[in-house]
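User: Please predict the structure of the protein below. I'd like the answer in structure-token form so I can feed it into my own downstream comparison script.

Assistant: Understood. Taking the following sequence of 104 residues as input:
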Amino acid sequence: MIITTVEHIEGKRIVKTLGLVKGNTIRARHVGHDLMAGLKNLVGGEISDYTKMIAEAREQAIDRMIDNAKAMGANAIVGVRFTTSSVMQGAAELLAYGTAVLID
């Protein structure tokens, strides 16, 4: 599966546009991690637990988007974007979306 943020894939021809595909996940913060993040906020630096959590959420959203595209018969996804939104206090959604296409 080819995944790209641009609308065209160099050297490939889009023969069919199949439609919107998406994948999402909702993640909540952990109270213990919040305590460490608060301490890190005082001294500065990367909050590695949150970096890891967001990276895992992004990969899960991408995997779900790919599954959605495969179910439609796609072999590529173009125009991929990410967005986040707050769902409730301490929890956020990460959404990956793009256009499923068939390329040759």
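That's the full token string. Residues 2-103 form a domain with the Translation Initiation Factor IF3 fold (CATH 3.30.110.70).
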